[in-house]
Predict the structure of Peptide synthase.
Amino acid sequence: MSNSSEMNRGAGANLCRHLNDAAKHSPGQLAVAVQQASGSIFSAKTLSYQEITFAELESRSDKLAHALNEYGIKRGMKAVLMVTPCIDFFTLTFALFKAGIIPILVDPGMGVKNLKQCFIESQPDAFIGIPKAHLARRLFSWGKDSVKHLVTVGGCGLWGGVSLNRLMEDAASTSSVSPYQMAWLDEDEMAAILFTSGSTGTPKGVVYSHKMFEAQITALKHDYGIASGERDLATFPLFSLFGPALGMASIVPEMDASKPITANPGYLFAAIEKYQCSNMFVNPALIERLGQAGVTQTKTHQLSSIKRVISAGAPATIASIKHFSQMLNDGVEVLNSYGATESLPLSKMGSKALFATTQVTDAGGGICVGSPIEGVDIAIIDIDEAPIAQWHDSLSLKPGEIGEIVVKGPMVSRSYYRRDSATEQAKIIDGSAIRHRMGDLGYLDEAGELWMCGRKAHRVDTSQSVKGEPSRYFSIPCERIFNTHPQVKRSALVAVKVADQTVPLLCIELEKSLGCSMGASLFAELNEIAERHVQTKGIKRFLIHPDFPVDIRHNAKIFREKLAVWAQKNHKE
């Protein structure tokens, strides 16, 4: 850290201190490389790379922080940031953090209606985006009542406001090129607002503090063993920011981060090879996509430089992890992480240990997501929709009992932005700390490992209890049992009304090579499976769906709410 920053620091926190430190100790070392594919649709694309060192990123973000202040965007203001991963994205984000300006990060894949709601709730003072984002802002009136400052990235200022290039030129022509005196925030002060995807409801703005960011950096260093000097294939924008903060280069491939299933595997392999990446952060959709492309009948692509693979966002299937792992060196594992926007990471489990749990999972025991990382406390409480104001240890269930997962740790968010009812519903005060109700169901085993049993909203509570049958069904245990059938690609448990009674129904998606008609033999086999397991006994209704609706980012989170509506219309009483 520079002496000027240290002298003006006082008490407080700022993620950018790590960038400052890297610029001081490793100024010429690569901080970010962004892959770009160019060429016509009729010829092979040419790959090129934009690079920036730690010293250059520190200097450029300092200049931009000065420029933003001169333009009128000051500490405490909120700025929507809708910029695709590029050098400017990194420069802007670190400039905003340095200046104490609060970036609002939204997932463009959440849909126009949800995006507009995000802007209504967050009331941004500034809108910083690429031309396409500004076009959408105008068409859909995003932030029209609050936005006073406009910045266009990768284009001119015709959209109103000023272009990023003009801001930087103006900063370079003034005396404001000295190191920026970064803002030091109270550790729980709002540093950013991250909107959840809204895959199970309306998106909510999660309030992030620098304390949370620091806890995530600490976890990546200590629990995942990431060291300065590594190079990371960064496929998720938020995680890519941690690279420079860890002294690790972020290598950003040419891909749509909101739709990783559409990524070109060749581009990612090329980036890994060129920069000899040691780390990869990939979601389940990419694990499956890369595994299919890299492992064929004739050859297997080797990712010989990779030392660590981190997967998060949704549970990856064991089959896809095994397929993908054929490209890795012996001893290199896929580290599956559990968490959410409100609290990540919470637990982790290596792929070898995960493979050993296959029989338990296939028998309806849930998905093991491993042990809590250092500093994280995980408890299980009764399934209840009512808010809980204060934590007391008597709320905890015993090992093996399924309930809602509740977590405490330094990376756990304290509130949602301007959503008091959602905060009340999800947060429990525990002394000076906050526990977060994950909305997920699961249990802790005798060894303290956490097993996932699905979303709380996806359980099915029946209207009447029949002797020998459960009155409550959990999505993951039930679905994994039926997924063992060779003709079933995936399944989804939903509730339907039959004669005013709530009963469970299982939607089935068959393997693509099979027809969509349910023969009597398949129906009988599914019924036999249901009767053989206590978790599924009583499930007697099955419907074939041609193609499950899933989220575009993970290609794994099934929209069961949509399936439930479809099932209610199509089932026979």
